[in-house]
Amino acid sequence: MFDQLSASFEDAVKGLRGQATISDTNVDNALRQVRRALLEADVSLSVVKKFIEEVRRKAIGTEVVRGIKPDQKFIQVVYEQLVKLMGTENTPLIRNNGKPTVILMAGLQGAGKTTASAKLALYLKSQGAKVLMVAADIYRPAAIDQLHVLGKQIDVEVFSISKDVQPEEIAAASIQKGCEEGFDCIIIDTAGRLQIDTAMMEEMVRIKSAVSPDEILLVVDSMIGQEAAEITRTFHEQVGITGAILTKLDGDARGGAALSIRKVSGAPIKFIGVGEKVEALQPFHPERMASRILG
Ligand code: GDP
């Protein structure tokens, strides 16, 4: 793994080769390159700044020990700090015993919320859970249909009422059904907007207080780049998230959003979406993402 990082950071660490220690003066160029790489990977500027300071602090003064050269050491520090920033290990979903686990899906329109709901349903079903999906997006009839189609495809029941019933009432009714009929997991797909607006946030808060979810998962499109940080911050401040699903990582996105999400909210990314198909969901692993970001 470090071989690959070493290759892409050839240039960054040239100035450190042959040095006895990593010092204030010889590390500058390397840090500049890391900074550029992170910005190119769409990590938000504020996160990059803090990150660079942390790497500088950790790397400076490192003695050459047992054959580990300063350049290798520097790469190792960067890699370790990236992994740490993303939470070190995969954080699994919260699961209740004896009552349904309620998962509220949040996010902007087009982020991949409905798709992620079905992916998650299939994932939980494959672990033996009895899953209910709930269509609480009353503004786009197509969203309700989309969830029904996906439900059929993965053989998971979908609960919907009508567009004339408020989302929080639909959500509350689904919990009652879930408890009565012995469902293990209830995944509530909510309405998104093209951008953050007050009505959407207020609705999320109402649904949240109606169902007391175990998880509020923010679905973030990795292709939106630097904006991911701001979206995450707003959702977290106004609704409070317990985790995130980063979608569309099968595309060109370099995954920098992964660093921003954790840093601005403290909430772990729990899954990544890697395709349009319902099977294209993977638990998130910080080490793999760190390698991807560093190229
Ligand atoms: P929503 O508005 O947030 O519910 O978004 P949708 O679930 O309807 O997804 C929007 C579009 O993104 C659809 O065309 C999905 O097929 C696509 N999509 C969702 N997740 C992924 C992913 O992980 N990879 C790719 N390539 N496309 C995705």
Features of the shown structure:
single chain; 295 residues; alpha/beta; 8-stranded mixed sheet; 12 helices; 48% helix; elongated; binds guanosine-5'-diphosphate; GTP binding; signal recognition particle
What would a concise description of this structure say?
With 295 residues, this protein is α/β, with parallel strands linked by helices. It has helices at residues 2-8, 10-13, 28-40, 45-59, 70-85, 113-126, 141-154, 167-180, 198-211, 227-238, 257-265, 286-294; strands spanning 101-106, 131-136, 157-159, 185-190, 215-221, 243-247, 269-273, 281-283.
Q: Stretches where pLDDT falls below 50 for ≥5 residues?
A: none
Q: What distance separates the N and C termini? A: 11 Å
Strand content: 5-15%
Helix coverage percent: 40-55%
- Could you tell me the mean pLDDT? 89
Order of SSEs, N→C?
HHHHHEHEHEHEHEHEHEEH
List ligands, each type once.
guanosine-5'-diphosphate
